[in-house]
Amino acid sequence: MRFRLLILFVVCAVTHLAAQQLYTDTFKLAEQNEAVESDAYLLDIVSAQTMEKLAADSLDSVMVAAEMMRLDSIARELREIDSLRTVNASLALQKIEKMPAITVEKSWIKDAEEDRNDVLRAIREMKSPWRREATLMLQITQNYVTPNWYQGGSSSFAALGIAKGQVSYITDRFTWENTGEWRMGGSTVSADSLHKINTTDDLFRIYSKANLRIVPKVFTSISAEIETRLLPTFKSNSMELKSAPFSPFRFNAAFGIDYKPVKDLSISVSPVSYKVIHVADTARVTVTEYGLDEGQRTQHNIGSSVRVEYTWKPVREVSLESKFYFYTNYHHVEIDLEVNCDFIINRFMSARLMLHPRYDSSVVMNGDTHAKIQFRELLSIGFAHKFH
Question: The CATH number of 129-387 is which of 2.60.40, 3.40.30, 2.40.160, 2.40.50?
Answer without folding.
Answer: 2.40.160
